Amino acid sequence: MSRQRNRSAGGDRINRARPVSFTFDGKTYTGYEGDTLASALLANGVTLVARSFKYHRPRGVFTCDPHEPNALVQLHSGARQEPNIAATMVELYDGLEAHSQNRWPSLRIDLLSVNQLFAPFFAAGFYYKTFKWPAKFWTRVYEPIIRRAAGMGRLSGEIDPASYEKTFHHCDIMVVGGGIAGIEAARSAAQTGARVTLIEEHAHLGGHDDDGLQQAITALQAMENVQILTRTMVFGWYDSMTFGAVEQVSDHLKTSENYQPRQRLWKIVAKQIVLATGAHERSLIFGNNDKPGVMLASAVERYIRDFGVRAGKRAVILTTNNSTDGLPRLLRQAGIELAAIVDARKGEEIVTVHGRTRVKAVTLRGPDGSTRKLPCDLVCVSGGWNPAVQLLAQRGQKPRWSEPLQAFLPQHMAGDDFLCTGSLAGLEHRDDCRMHADLTGQIAAQRIAANSPDVLTVYTSVLKAAEERTQNFAYFESTSGRSKKFVDLQHDVTESDIALATREGYRSVEHVKRYTTMGMATDQGKTSNVHGIAAMSKALDKPMGQVGTTGFRPPYRPVSLGVLAGRSRGKHWRPILRTPLHGWVEDKDGVFIESGLWHRSQYFPQPGETMQQAINREVLAVRNAVGFCDVSTLGKIDLQGPDAAEFLNKVYSNGFAKLPVGKSRYGLMLREDGIVMDDGTVSRLAETHFFVTTTSAELESVLSHLEYCHQVLWPELDLVFADVGEDWAGIALAGPHARDVLSRIVDEMDTGNDALPFLAARTCTVLGGIPARLFRISFSGELAYEIYVPSRFGRTLAEALELEGQEFGISPYGVEALDVLRIEKGHVSSELNKFTTANDLGLGTMMSTKKDYVGRALSNRPGLTDPNREVVVGLKPLDPSMGFRQGVHVIPKGAALAPQNDLGYVTSAAWSPTLERYIGIALVSNGRERLGEIVEIVDPLHKEKPVPAEIVSHHFYDPENERVRS
Amino acid sequence: MCAAKAHPLYCLDGIEPATAAPLTNTAGVSVRILTGRAVIRIMPFGACRQAVEQALSGFGFTALPAPGCFDETVGSCLAWAGKNCWFLIAGQDKAEREQELMLALDGIAAVSNANDGFLCLGIDGQDARTLIAKGCVLDLDGLETGQCAVTLMAHTRVHLHRKSPTAFDLMVPASHAASFWEWLAMSAAEIGMSVTIMPPSRHPASS
Question: Which of A631, A633, A716, A720 is best to mutate for the B interface (most B CBs within 10 A)?
């Protein structure tokens, strides 16, 4: 445990009555509630916090902000381990565990700092120039070594145990930035009654200096129409005024309270946005400007004022502007000796910083060129301020260079749905900010209330006047000397790297960024980019404005992948759909399979059975006795109206106008381009009432197609239709004893072949009054029925069938057996693959020649009637025991395994327990002319032995179709 | 309806909703699972809207609600449910009611029973809005009492009715119900949720 030897008076944010202990690299320290990890480390005299990305140079805390380039740490351990977190944003709690990263074996003695010796070789573009050969070394040797030597922290590789939430939020006006301008804009906007959301990424409102703001903050917090989100960062501005924001809900707590998530993703829709994102202080370029102890002046000030921490004992201020005017007084108050003020405006500069792991002294050069070495341990740097244009620029707005301000400003300060204010808008004085923000809030509120064009004359004149009266000092010089002068601290990019890139021909700032990696790290160059642009400007002899900035994209600063994924991971990664029989299947120990979003019963194993044995048993039960299967996933559409029959007649390729009441018919639906869209059944329950089934997968597309046909093609037809799939549980009952079982469950109904023939459709009741729809249709090739009951009775029906069918050897069967049964019968299913025509599928006779229907015209185009098209055939391996997979290819016997010999591919394959052999259905070019031809089934992907097979009719079982009519 | 055993909460088979119960000390929302509701789908044919409205006057409704709205009478609610589609929702599933409606609307509208197609939930409490907002992209301030929407929530198409500033009714497709329930229970973890399964006689639609 160490003392907090660098505590001074003050510290508005900390509670000295609540000490907390934490560890850094295994050593225990004490801080106070309200501290950040950075402030607590500085309070304890810890100045060496990290090693740099490439050269492993010692680094300390540089800012007091989220865009900290140096002090990145790894938090926690085990599964919660999280790398690359800015110590400046980590709120301290008891037991916090932090580690330095990118060093070996320790932070103080980092052997990888040997990289500094090779610095001359590690210039910009080093990777691209060096690791060219041998090619296979790149992924196996070079990349692993480079990643090991030049990297950031590491993930644990374990599953993140934290929870993340997501929420949607709407507001009239969103104010981004909770500094003086944001608070004032939110207050004035909210006074009109508008719904205002104020978002601030720090834990507290007030920004850099909250003096005199407490009253306004309290007033704002009391307003019911204002929502304040602190610890929340708006990371992206997307289309239609949609924003992404991340709230750190419990990151600042040791453990989350009351099941709160770690972070919450906010998807915000705002009508107006007020950008009060402030400005970032920038550094200056001088020798060894990265040593621990070199800090932004505003950071030194805030550590004293907010946390009661002095970052050093003897300071030198290096400045180019007036924002440091109050710093000397604050330093004195904190007990920090002011060794010198180096004012660049007077021609003074720091040549270099001395010290190994922290600042020991600086060499100064005066206006007359004389130099002197001055002992100190803190260098407070202010090179001016960069308005935080990044969020606005995400919308494609290129910032413009302001000569008076010596900064990039938004190209447009206002648009139809946004307004800029505060430091972002170039205002440098508190009173200007307050006045302009107040006006901005009013304008935003007027836009909401009046929804009319606003007058921005005063708004813009204030900004223009402020810009015109400002004459900031242009200073982007770097001192001479051999010490390294860093532009981008986080990626170790020096001024010479940028100069080299321009010498090598890079002219665009985007290219230089990527070649040198300037501004590509977690801080995205917020403290450094302008100096990089200045270096380019100098090297290319182009004005700053012409060099311009790079583009800005979301996220504004790093966002954890966990919060983006939210709860959509593991079993929750997408919703699952369950049929009304799901619970019954579970009770029967049925195995489920995912089929799209559906969880369907795959098979029902009995003790000791393999999957194949279970499937075989289920198939044979249907063939020899009776089985039943959950078909609730089929799409079900209720279609009614005086013109319903005519509509169906136009939609399907086969005729429905004359379908009698009480009859079902298999229907084939084409797309407009003549390709098969879906198949299913249509049953006429009454003169104007039809019940349509679709395949499970195509319900949505069929519904959409029907809407199109009704709304666009034939709006004059009077009918309505609804998706009733959720309302009905469906069970297929199939097998020679299906009628016996059916007769035991229906109420007072003749189930004989004459009364209920093949393709009969009835509404009836079952099991003593359950309303039901009964269709004698078959997918298995056996005597079969589909029975639909209200979903709440699905389980009841299944239980009754099982009970009543016991005498006949009934067995439930799953989708695997269902598939085998239909392959044996030669029914097409997976062959409807969005490429096949009715003729390809052997269903050409279902294309009526007596009427018009969707898809008719284009189904006759040459490409779809080519005799060499791939059409459905059956495949029988010559050796019945030789199996093959769906998807494998068919080539002529003895032909070379080459694309030009490809005849087609297998669309369905199965072991047929009925035929006791493997069988398959394939799409084969000119297949019907090849019946009897011996071919080879080849599987080059799995390098399996070719299977010789005969091309046969795909109707393997009961080709005369007698059993379904029995 | 019949003597055979019905499973009104079949869509939550294997889930014990009542034990989902408040994870925190206080329940910010109370969730009522409304079993046995009658939900009857009404879709008027071509030019029959006026005739349908006239027929519905016998059931206490003077007009078909405008898109995005619902009307309530004692014991019943008539809610817009999509293009040319309305739901008549009654607290109890009475076969007679459906038969009466079918007779009254014969030839002028398609009537079908949608009772079993939905898991009906009533969500009430100070944090109800917060809970709904976790999955619903709509501006809930703009969805006022008496208004409804067919929208996406947690990847599921739901019918959302605003019953009061702090109360919502949800109709979730039955096949999505289990998945949606898991989402709801997890979303309510930080809020606290109490769950009641309401038998049919205890929840008139216009509660």
Answer: A720
Closest-approach residue (CA) in chain B for A571: B179
Taking each helix axis as running N to C, give the angle between helix A738-745 and helix A794-805, from 0 to 180 degrees, rounded to the nearest 10. 120
CA distance A644 to A689: 7
Would you call A790 and B154 a contact, using CB atoms and an 8 Å cutoff? no
d(CA B35, CA B203): 9
The secondary structure of A687-733 as a DSSP string is: TTEEEEEE-TTTHHHHHHHHHHIIIII-TTS--EEEE-TTTEEEEEE
What DSSP assignment string belongs to A92-103? --TTEEEE--S-
Contact between A519 and A390 (Cβ < 8 Å): no
* Per-residue pLDDT of chain B in tens (207 residues, 90 and over written 9): 455 788 889 999 998 886 655 455 578 999 999 988 889 999 999 999 999 999 999 888 999 999 999 999 888 899 999 999 999 998 765 657 778 888 999 999 999 999 999 999 999 999 999 999 999 999 999 999 999 999 999 999 999 999 999 999 999 999 999 999 999 999 999 999 999 998 765 444 443
Contacts of A638 in chain B (CB under 8 A): 110, 112
Q: Identify all chain A residues contacting B88, using CB atoms and an 8 Å cutoff.
A: none
Q: Which residue has the higher pLDDT, A132 or A667?
A: A667
Q: What percent of chain A has pLDDT over 70?
A: 99
CB contact under 8 A, B190 and A582: no
Q: How far is CA A687 from the centre of its chain?
A: 50
Percent of chain A whose predicted confidence (pLDDT) is above 90 = 88
pLDDT in tens, A797-813: 999 999 999 999 999 99
Return d(Cα A454, Cα A416) in angstroms, integer.
9
Helices (H), A470-609: 495-503, 509-516, 529-540, 544-547, 561-565, 582-587
- CA atoms within a 13 Å half-sphere pointing along the CA-CB vector of B30: 7
Q: What is the dihedral sign for C-alpha A87, A90, A91, A92?
A: negative
Q: How far apart are CA A846 and CA A833, in angstroms?
A: 18
Out of A575, A722, A791, closest to residue B179 by CB = A575
d(CA A300, CA A309): 9
Query: In which residue are the tokens 């702090």 written?
Result: B166
Q: Which two tokens stand for residue B196?
A: 């009641």
Q: Are strands A15-24 and A96-99 parallel, antiparallel or unpaired?
A: parallel
Neighbouring C-alpha atoms within 13 Å toward the C-beta of A883: 9
Our CA-based measurement puts residue A51 at a distance from the nearest CA of chain B, in whole angstroms, of 39
Return the number of other C-beta atoms located less than 10 Å from residue A588's C-beta: 15
Instruction: Nearest chain B residue to A166 by CA: give it.
Output: B134
Residues of A in contact with B154 (CB under 8 A): 575
- The answer to whether B113 faces chain A, any CB pair under 8 Å, is yes
> What ipTM was predicted for this assembly?
0.95
- With a cut of 80, say whether residue A913 has pLDDT above it: yes
- Per-residue confidence (pLDDT) for residue B1, from 0 to 100: 47
8 A C-beta contact, residue A351 and residue A363: yes
| DSSP state letters, A588-599 | TTPEEEEETTEE
Decide: A924 and A867 in contact? Cβ < 8 Å: no
Residues of B in contact with A570 (CB under 8 A): none
With residue A774 as reference, give the H or E element that holds it: strand A770-775
